[in-house]
Amino acid sequence: MRQRFWYLAQLFIRPDIQARGVGQALMSRTLEQAARNDADNRALITAGYNMASTGLYIRNGLYPREPLYRLVAPGVVLAGALVAESSTETMPLGASPGDYAWLDMVEEAVIGFQRKTQHRFMQSTLGLRALRIDASGRPTGYAYVSAEGHIGPLLAAPEADEVTVVLAAIRAGLIGEPKQVSLIVPGRAERILAALSSLGFRIEESMLLMAARSFGDWTRYLPNSPGVM
Question: Domains along the chain?
Answer without folding.
Answer: 70-205 (3.40.630.30)
